[in-house]
Design brief:
This is mitogen-activated protein kinase kinase. The protein is α+β, with helices and mostly antiparallel strands. It contains eleven helices and eight strands. The protein has a five-stranded antiparallel sheet, with helices on one face. Strands 6-7-8 form a three-stranded antiparallel sheet. Helix 3 packs antiparallel against helix 6. Bound molecules: adenosine-5'-diphosphate. The site of adenosine-5'-diphosphate has 20 residues, from strand 1, strand 3, strand 5 and strand 6.
Length: about 300
């Protein structure tokens, strides 16, 4: 089954990513609401075809912890990627409402299970674990998106990467992570930063008086790793994060070990009303954002 732009009816803008817009769309043939992500790339047709082909393995990526993939296509030099619509959006939009520790435990559990699925079932490393890539739906389910399935896409995104916040592990920055440059352990580091950011509401290396991005990089490589505030989080939660943020990548636990950590064992056993938390946090996000602006005509809708 081939998905195409002519089947899409653009409903609204969901967000602006580093490489393009994400739209909420209605897919007429299936009558399914989807999220359509645009990735602008300066690539030739062969490279674009390669990306679409490599993304195809995502059809096999069915897991309750991974955002469903519906298909991809390209127009000119943009790749369009259609996926499950997650009503409450990404974690960065939801944490300003505050995340109780029990909810944080459930979120972490889902992320670790998602990462383990990618590793064990598809043999892929996420490469970009951060709050904007953790999505929540109205049932309160937490799923991962934006992982590195396509080598071709990874390469061209790496070339154009201009992030100002680095979730990169120290070994990646100093280049000791091997020729491939990325290992499972590096994702575990990013997971640790993601948990602290979700808990505290801000990126852990922000606001320590940096004047430029080099200071931030220096702090990651030479400074002590950040911690969860022990005044507000249990010993188990703090210890979990400390394990993820071990500067020695070889000493970081693998996913199985993380799942056996007392904090996640407790999270697995606990009952938490995730649906209620998600709907409150999303309502607060909408209230802060204010009424949505006038109907936006995105450039995608002119290309039927
Ligand atoms: P980034 O480049 O920062 O990772 P993305 O391009 O992935 O950002 O997405 C931009 C924003 O669009 C996200 O922060 C998220 O809030 C929203 N978004 C992305 N995918 C979905 C989805 N499947 N369902 C709902 N909202 C989404």
């Amino acid at each position: 089954y081939k998905i195409s732009m002519s089947q899409m009816c653009v409903l609204e803008v969901l967000g602006l990513g580093q490489y393009g817009v994400v739209h909420k769309v209605f897919h007429r043939p299936t009558r399914v609401i989807m999220a359509l992500k645009e990735i602008r790339l300066e690539l030739n047709k062969r490279a674009l075809q390669q990306i679409i082909m490599e993304l195809d393995v995502l059809h096999k990526a069915r897991s309750p912890y991974i955002v469903d993939f519906y298909g991809a296509f390209f127009i000119e030099s943009c790749v369009y990627y259609s996926m499950e619509f997650m009503e409450c959006g990404s974690l960065d939009r939801l944490y300003p409402a505050g995340i109780p520790e029990a909810v944080l435990g459930k979120i972490t559990l889902s992320v670790v299970k998602g990462l383990q699925f990618l590793k064990d079932k598809l043999n892929i490393i996420h490469r970009d674990v951060k709050p904007t890539n953790v999505l929540v739906n109205k049932k309160g389910e937490v799923k991962l998106c934006d992982f590195g399935v396509s080598g071709e896409l990874n390469q061209s995104l790496a070339k154009t990467h201009v992030g100002c916040q680095s979730y990169m592990a120290p070994e990646r920055i100093i280049g000791t992570a091997g020729p491939e440059g990325y290992t499972i352990q590096s994702d575990v580091w990013s997971l640790g930063l993601t948990i602290i950011e979700a808990a505290t509401g801000r990126f852990p290396y922000e606001n320590i008086g940096f004047t430029n991005v080099f200071d931030q990089i220096n702090a990651i490589v030479n400074g002590d790793p950040p911690k969860l505030p022990s005044s507000r989080y249990s010993e188990a939660a703090c210890d979990f994060v400390n394990c993820c943020l071990n500067k020695d990548s070889n000493s970081r636990p693998n996913y199985q070990k993380l799942l056996e950590h007392p904090w996640l064992v407790e999270a697995e056993a606990s009952t938490v009303d995730m649906e209620d938390w998600a709907s409150r946090a999303h309502a607060l996000f909408l209230a802060r954002k204010g009424p949505s602006s006038s109907p936006y005509v995105p450039h995608t809708s002119t290309r039927r």
